[in-house]
């Protein structure tokens, strides 16, 4: 049993941090850099193929020491031990959170490795062209049908790694994703595909999510029509559907054949599930060796997180920096800005990981909190964001924290071709822009020539804090380390705030109300007790549908 924390007795450390922030508010990042040439040396961590530069955060040594002390006071060591011991850290659902166990080495978690082996057999059959459609064709297209954690993680990682070479002698199928419940994605994907050569992965931890079940049903009807088979046809199900879930009973009831079922467990949260068979699209992209390399990178980060002192600990420092920005500098938002287009889907993945985990306002004990938790997180590929919302970062009225991501090595494998030389030039251009933006945001106009007087509309206030993360290169291993770092960062923040990051009750309520609304849409005049706005909107839609 994990003891709870007294979140409302705000500690003296909390007051000291508040005072420290008040004193340091006037400090400008340009002053911090001018006063201390060693600032980078003291504010960076280099581990597991990642370098994190925190020196452009508006944080003094004193603030950092106080934050580290706060982590101690909040019993971070105890909570990390509880997480890694498999204690019931998810108190509202009475469950452990053992996503880290999915990347343990063989011998530690036999059931995990059994499923990995089953996954490997399927991956082999598909990549070698041995998995056949009902009419004997090899599979050319795989569609992942899932939503939330059953979509965002595999989509992000498969997209990030798709430039790596497919495993030798194997033909990688095209991978598609369909998540949205309105059918817009599934209908578009199906238009382009041939039912004879298409395999669907129905990915859902619960196997009850209506979004996924409706998309899967549409796909099944499309297959039945296209192949001239019955909706209930066993051969259709055997040749064209794989199911991935923690609910084998529901999978079987839907029609997934026992041999086509991959399982994971209740103790893996949906947004932490890409390490399980939910990661099948990733394995189909990089092969099983690549997938295992990603697990290995994540495992290295688990070990780093468990063993390093807080000041040298990547996830812990990332979490403490965020706590400083949110609770003490009162910065309400964070932009995630990858300068490597392969990380295009990272912002959306992090939006779920962080906001669904830590978007909470009561403590573990159910008491309301009187301090902020997760900020608004959003993002975009950095170079594109420069032409979209960077104006607000540079000259808007709000303080915003930024997280820049870049890769040190890219396009290095084939530097002999002309195209590779040009692309390497583009890589350098992107990295130069990344460094330029974080410098300008930090120093403001003090990064420019001081002799040039600027009119008010051209002035740069600066002092927008940022962290820069540099990956040695984007490989399955470094990606695994990066994602595990974010997972642990979310947990560390939850420990500081005294909240449960592993449930999502706010989302559950919306699902229930949507079921009632379906009835209202069918008969808007018979909706007793409904608010005036919802009823009027339902009536309006009904009128428009009839006209
Ligand atoms: O949005 C709520 C949620 O439960 C997420 O946490 C989860 O990733 C998503 O729905 C999908 O759930 P499932 O994998 O059970 O279909």
UniProtKB/TrEMBL annotation:
Major subcellular location class: cytoplasm
Cell division among keywords: no
Lineage: Bacteria, Pseudomonadati, Pseudomonadota, Gammaproteobacteria, Oceanospirillales
Function: Catalyzes the reversible isomerization of glucose-6-phosphate to fructose-6-phosphate.
Record carries keyword Isomerase: yes
Organism domain of life: Bacteria
Organism per entry: Alcanivorax profundi
Subcellular localization, as worded in the UniProt entry: Cytoplasm
Pathway membership: Carbohydrate degradation; glycolysis; D-glyceraldehyde 3-phosphate and glycerone phosphate from D-glucose: step 2/4; Carbohydrate biosynthesis; gluconeogenesis
Protein name in UniProt: Glucose-6-phosphate isomerase
The encoding gene: pgi
Entry-linked PANTHER family: GLUCOSE-6-PHOSPHATE ISOMERASE
Family to which the UniProt record says this protein belongs: Belongs to the GPI family.
Gene3D superfamilies in the record: 1.10.1390.10, Glucose-6-phosphate isomerase like protein, domain 1
Family matches, as SUPFAM superfamilies: SIS domain
